[in-house]
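ugh ok fine here u go
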Amino acid sequence: MKHHASDVHVLAAAYALNALDPGEREEFAAHLAGCEACRDDVADFQATAARLAAAAAQAPPASMRQRTMAAADGVRQLPPLVLAATPVAFRGTLRRRALPVALAASLAAAASFAGLAVWQNQENRQLEQRARQSEQRLDAVSTVLAAPDARSVHGRAGNGAFTSVVASDRQNRAVFTATGLPTPAAGKTYQLWLDHDGTMRPAGFIRQDGTVLIDGDTADAGAVGLTLEPAGGSPQPTTTPLLLMTLPT
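structure:
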């Protein structure tokens, strides 16, 4: 059976989505062997379908596999289905499918662009949120450094880093600065502590040279500590302090 070349090309999307009848699929597969344009179209449609499926996919519950395997033991297998051979009305089916396939392709493309727009919007919101948080931290640090009652103390950590603490009683806050801080090993981070009468309380992190706001109430704290902890931090120090510096008064 002969088919017009332009008619055959529009079946690429239906072929990629397994929407052709067996006879049509076999005939279109034979056409693909000699048509590079259709092969490219099929690859593009399959990639688009895979991306859309991945975007909507959700991980199944952990118990689903066990339930499925247990249920399969009690399901009776059906006998094979034998289909009688029937003539393939390729051109007639082509006309019926051309518009729905084109519409499906358009919807797939629209969904892809919509997903991209949503992703970009989410990325922008996250960037704006991080920018606001950075600005708030900078304002808090500046407020402590510019406080009329700000006092400072300097020291040197066990790993050679130069450190300083600036504290303000009025602000009830303090900032920590480090210079020459060695890069921690993989899976490790520097954690700050406030010493409250011998009890060490987590006070934030410093991951590289710079100045950070010390977390927590410094009003009744006597010293600032620095340790190397597992990434994510620890509720109590797990290593010997690299620094234990008395807060300025």
